[in-house]
């Protein structure tokens, strides 16, 4: 079998294996969903009235829902990919990976299976959290079908980027606990982005960090697509970050995978 | 020369300045069982990992061919010919035994129908049909090991590496595993086995290499290895010190163990020699309270070659003559 059909076939097999894990043991995925849902409810119902003052223009709680949901959706991805880091680290400590390495299968399929599985889980998680957001009153403003499509594409691309990084973290970690810890920044990074409060409200020296870190451009782009706000350079920046992180994570993960195991 | 399943020249591996394998040569003919025997830390697992393409050989190694393919330049062709059952179970504990088997069938690119057929047959053969729908993590050690080997066999490998396949198994499971390994070679498969159990190598292997400290201390059939060292003897034990002393006077060539009141007469353990010793004892009027025949076994070989001494309590393979 030539290399591309082999890669597709073996990766699909590995994907089935990972989805089987996720279906059989959904608690990890569901636990990771809890954080963004809790934060959504917390920021809307507890902080919503106060926070809305910060986004300007006499906004109220319902305006703050619109403001906070794009950030929460991207945070959901950050949270879901922690699961990828944990499951990769767990997997690598299992004997079955040694077996895969000694089989005539496509070399990258083990990791590709993890990545595709995790991206699918991210998208599913985003849809679930999005449904909660809609249930508590989130509505897009005049988003066209094309904009919705672009929004989903952005979320999937961003999920791909963060997943490759998370897989690299999982590969570099000796066990599941370490993987969970090293992937923690992926869920903390949204807190220092424009997810909850505008960049302008932050201390001046910190604004560049918050403005150009991967989450802010993605959040601003998603806001633009769903709520009609100005996207500007954020669209390109979000795509560039995503491709850059995906490439970095890919190189990192595959070099770890191809190195002699301990 | 018959064709070799595994041919390794000067296999080397070191981690930093710690040398694990210091240039070992291996030649395993097709269709035979080869056993790499050695204590913990001798480098057995490292050798299996290299030969099964899991890790790369050290840079100073010579040519290594497995199934006729060069390990360094064509590892994927090697992988297509081998099956590996590692020391630690290589099963996916989160999914069922059957799902593990079907996963292997998919990765060997069998069609759906053929995959199901092969998996069902192997589960049946390894007595796992009843447990097939249960998660592999709930299996006992012996069941996991059987599933592990069944998974290895899905791709119909020509060469099978078994790294300590019976470590941690109870005696019954161990004997089952031996039977399984014997059956493998009847179909022309080559088995490369590592073990720390001398009895296991003796029972199964056509050829044995004793690995110690990264080097092959000796290589040959079990018989050849046993011939390398003397050690066969008949041991006579007495309860009464005065009987012991008179026997010791009569049997001058026997070596004495005054503490245990025992005499050792060199012997190869054959029936003929045994009879002549007994005749001789009769004619000398010596009546021992215990008589045991100790034939040189791989334990003796092993301890002699690996530089440690035979422990005094090493009586498992002695047989009492009744």
Automatic annotation (TrEMBL), chain A:
TM helices/strands, residue ranges: 25-47, 67-89, 110-136, 148-171, 183-206, 233-252
Protein origin, superkingdom: Bacteria
Domain ABC transmembrane type-2: 27-260
Pfam families: ABC2_membrane
Keywords: Antibiotic resistance, Cell membrane, Membrane, Transmembrane, Transmembrane helix, Transport
Membrane-topology descriptor: Multi-pass membrane protein
Subcellular location: Cell membrane; Membrane
Keyword Transport included in the entry's annotation: yes
InterPro entries assigned: ABC2_TM, ABC2_TM_bact-type, ABC_2_transport, Nod_factor_ABC_transporter
Family to which this protein belongs: Belongs to the ABC-2 integral membrane protein family.
Protein name stated in the entry: Transport permease protein
Species name: Streptomyces cirratus
TrEMBL record, chain B:
Keywords of this entry: Antibiotic resistance, ATP-binding, Cell membrane, Membrane, Nucleotide-binding, Translocase, Transport
Subcellular locations according to the entry: Cell membrane
Coiled coil: none
Superkingdom per UniProt: Bacteria
Domain ABC transporter residues, every copy: 6-238
GO molecular function terms noted in the UniProt entry: ATP binding
InterPro entries per the UniProt record, alphabetical: AAA+_ATPase, ABC_transporter-like_ATP-bd, ABC_transporter-like_CS, ABC_transporter_ATP-binding, DrrA, P-loop_NTPase
Membrane topology: Peripheral membrane protein
Pfam families in the record: ABC_tran
Keyword Membrane applies: yes
Family recorded in the similarity comment: Belongs to the ABC transporter superfamily. Drug exporter-1 (DrugE1) (TC 3.A.1.105) family.
Name used for this protein in its record: Daunorubicin resistance protein DrrA family ABC transporter ATP-binding protein
Organism of this sequence: Streptomyces cirratus
């Amino acid at each position: 079998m030539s290399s591309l059909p082999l890669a597709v076939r073996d990766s699909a097999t590995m994907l089935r294996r990972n989805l089987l894990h996720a279906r059989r043991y959904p608690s990890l995925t569901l636990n990771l969903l809890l954080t963004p849902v809790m934060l959504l409810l917390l920021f809307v119902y507890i902080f919503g009235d106060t926070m809305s003052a910060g986004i300007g223009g006499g906004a109220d709680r319902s305006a703050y829902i619109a403001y906070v949901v794009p950030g929460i959706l991207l945070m959901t991805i950050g949270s879901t990919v922690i699961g990828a880091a944990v499951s990769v680290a767990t997997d690598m400590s299992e004997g079955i990976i040694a077996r895969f390495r000694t089989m005539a299968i496509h070399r990258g399929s083990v990791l590709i299976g993890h990545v595709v599985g995790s991206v699918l889980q991210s998208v599913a998680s985003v849809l679930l959290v999005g449904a909660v957001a809609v249930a508590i009153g989130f509505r897009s403003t005049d988003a066209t079908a094309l904009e919705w499509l672009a929004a989903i594409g952005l979320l999937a691309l961003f999920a791909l980027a963060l997943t490759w990084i998370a897989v690299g973290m999982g590969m570099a970690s000796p066990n599941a606990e370490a993987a969970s810890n090293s992937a923690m920044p992926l869920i903390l990074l949204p807190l220092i982005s424009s997810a909850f409060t505008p960049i302008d409200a932050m201390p001046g020296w910190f604004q560049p960090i918050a403005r150009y870190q991967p989450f802010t451009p993605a959040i601003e782009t998603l806001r633009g697509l769903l709520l009609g706000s100005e996207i500007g350079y954020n669209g390109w920046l979000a795509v560039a970050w995503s491709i850059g992180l995906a490439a970095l994570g890919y190189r990192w993960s595959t070099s770890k995978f191809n190195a002699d195991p301990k | 020369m018959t064709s070799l399943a595994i041919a390794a020249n000067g296999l080397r591996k070191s981690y930093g300045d710690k040398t694990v394998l210091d240039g070992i040569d291996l030649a395993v003919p097709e269709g035979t069982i080869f056993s790499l025997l050695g204590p913990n830390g001798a480098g057995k697992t490292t050798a299996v990992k290299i030969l099964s393409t899991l890790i790369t050989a050290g840079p100073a190694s010579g040519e290594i061919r497995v199934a006729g393919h060069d390990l360094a330049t064509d590892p994927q062709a090697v992988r297509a010919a081998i099956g590996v059952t590692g020391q630690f179970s290589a099963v996916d504990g989160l999914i069922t035994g059957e799902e593990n088997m079907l996963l292997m069938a998919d990765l060997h690119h069998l069609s759906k129908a053929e995959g199901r057929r092969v998996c069902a047959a192997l589960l049946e053969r390894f007595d796992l049909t009843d447990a097939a729908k249960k998660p592999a993590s709930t299996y006992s050690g012996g069941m996991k090991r059987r599933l592990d080997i069944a998974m290895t066999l899905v791709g119909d490998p020509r060469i099978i590496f078994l790294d300590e396949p019976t470590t941690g198994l109870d005696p019954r499971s161990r004997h089952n595993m031996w039977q399984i390994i014997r059956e493998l070679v009847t179909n022309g498969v080559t088995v490369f086995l590592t073990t720390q159990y001398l009895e296991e190598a003796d029972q199964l292997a056509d050829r044995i290499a004793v690995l110690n400290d990264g080097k092959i201390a000796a290589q040959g059939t079990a018989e050849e290895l046993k011939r390398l060292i003397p050690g066969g003897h008949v041991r006579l034990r007495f309860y009464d010190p005065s009987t012991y002393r008179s026997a010791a006077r009569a049997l001058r060539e026997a070596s004495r163990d005054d503490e245990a009141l025992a005499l050792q007469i060199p012997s190869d353990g054959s029936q003929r020699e045994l009879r002549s010793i007994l005749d001789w004892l009769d004619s000398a009027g010596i009546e021992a309270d215990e008589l045991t025949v100790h034939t040189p076994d791989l334990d003796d070989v092993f301890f002699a070659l690996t530089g440690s001494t035979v422990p005094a309590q090493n009586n498992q393979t002695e047989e009492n003559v009744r």
